[in-house]
Amino acid sequence: MSNKLAFHDLYSDVIGQGLCTACGICAGVCPTKVIDMDYSNQEAEPILTGKCKECGICYKVCPGKDIPLKDLDLKFLGQERDFISDEIGIYKGCYKGWAKDKHIQNVSSSGGMVSALLIYAMENDIIDGALLVGWDKEKPYRAKPIIAKTPEDVLNACRWTAEAIPVNELLHDAVMKEKLQRIAVVGMPCHIHGIRKLQASGVPSKIAKSIKFTIGLFCAATYYFEGIKHLIGEFSDVRSLDDIETLDYRGGSAPGALMVTTKDKRIHSVASKHDYTWHFLGPATYKRDRCLMCVDFSAELADISCGDIFQPVIPGRKHVVATITRTEIGEELVKGAAGKGYIEYSDHDPSMISCSGMGWESKKHAGMYRLMERKRHNWPAPDYQYPLGQNVKKRKLTFPK
Ligand SMILES: Cc1cc2nc3c(=O)[nH]c(=O)nc-3n(C[C@H](O)[C@H](O)[C@H](O)COP(=O)(O)OP(=O)(O)OC[C@H]3O[C@@H](n4cnc5c(N)ncnc54)[C@H](O)[C@@H]3O)c2cc1C
């Protein structure tokens, strides 16, 4: 690839083609910090704010158009796979688990595995910090990327938002400004694709070397904020977003509901998670365009991947996290955290993952079909390097109640 590629190439090949995932990595790796994530049109979008030096780094690490899964599988997970019939990618262990600490369980989305692993890594000198999602203090109904440096920061993070958050945009600040040398990144599959491309390219080297591990979240889709605004406007009596003090997508008992607290301290339960994702945001459809072409459900390149389990796998317990380890460090973290009492876990049947909600279907069948159609017509589409094809299987689907 020519080192003359510039931001305008990224714009014409990715952003302007509807292929940007809004992961933020272009902004996070720009050595001169002239790429910013802009929200002036409501949804996060990379823009150029100064003179581009045409180093080509943003283009090279961008996961919008080119995701060389085959190369990345080989490099980071040690083998290629049968892309079509493999349901959850290459893995070492498949577990179900939760944070042992009750407070972590209560403030987490589906059992606190992610938060507990991060806190274990911080308290045991494995990482200096983590890139996560937090709440915007000025607009408390919107989430934004944060650098967490303490267990308190992890617990104050936003446990769940349906929005696409450009977590990777903080790479530069975390490493170059805050001088963190060992960081974890928690993100959706597209964030992890960007991070793996960064690690594979090795440039910028200080940032690439700082990644200690990644935790990927299973992902059916992320949604335009417009959908969330519409949902609140139509299904609650909250009159203005400016009246909102806090917003919680997973409030109440698992799997939770979209709950809004207004400044007058009233709590508004807008819709259950099942209703707002599967009956409103998804079908309406507020899914981001690029998500419709994504074929990675279970964050197949992460060191550890975590997702909800909607089947009743442990009698009496609702908060259980499907936890897939894919690398040595992933496996060490889970075992280490369990050994020191941060988490509890046991084996999980991997074939249950594709039956838990409609996330797997969205990516592995619907997304795959859309991708094949787009490629057939030569429309802008991401390239995952493996041959495409669908995996239709009989499943006993379980939805969140
Ligand atoms: C938009 C979205 C869609 C999902 N879709 C599915 C699905 O279809 N099926 C499924 O099984 N699981 C899905 N998950 C994953 C699942 O809901 C839980 O996040 C996962 O089980 C981890 O739970 P936990 O209790 O261990 O996480 P916690 O300990 O609560 O930690 C969660 C971490 O997630 C991060 N986070 C929250 N929202 C975002 C976001 N939008 N982008 C990046 N990071 C974020 C926060 O930084 C937080 O630290 C989805 C998650 C999200 C955010």
Query: Would you tell me the overall average pLDDT?
Result: 96
Rg calculated over all Cα atoms = 20 Å
Order of helices and strands: HHEEHHEHHEEHHEHHEHEEEHEEHEH
Shape: globular
Strand content: 15-25%
Largest sheet: 8 strands, mixed
The structural domain count equals 2
Oligomer: single chain
Low-confidence parts lasting 5 or more residues at pLDDT below 50? Answer: none
Cofactors, ions and other ligands in the entry: flavin-adenine dinucleotide
How much helicity do the residues have? 25-40%
> What structural class do the secondary elements suggest?
alpha+beta
Q: Give the end-to-end Cα distance, rounded to a whole number of Å.
A: 49 Å
Number of helices: 14
Strand order of the largest sheet: 5-4-6-7-11-12-3-13
Number of strands: 13
Give a short overview.
By secondary structure, the protein is α+β, with helices and mostly antiparallel strands. It folds into 2 domains: 1-222 and 287-401, no CATH class; 225-284.
Which key features would you list for this structure?
globular, single chain, three-stranded antiparallel sheet, 401 residues, 13 strands, binds flavin-adenine dinucleotide, 2 domains
Tell me the layout of helices and strands.
Elements (H helix, E strand, L loop, with lengths): L6 H7 L11 H5 L5 E4 L6 E4 L8 H5 L7 H9 L15 E7 L2 H6 L5 H11 L5 E7 L7 E6 L2 H5 L15 H7 L5 E5 L1 H13 L3 H6 E7 L7 H11 L8 E8 L5 E6 L4 E6 H12 L19 E5 L12 E5 L2 H12 L3 E5 L11 H18 L25
Parallel strand pairs: 4-6, 6-7, 7-11
Antiparallel strand pairs: 1-2, 3-12, 3-13, 4-5, 8-9, 9-10, 11-12
Helix pairs in contact: 4-9, 6-13
Flavin-adenine dinucleotide (FAD) binds next to helix 6, strand 4, strand 6 and strand 11.
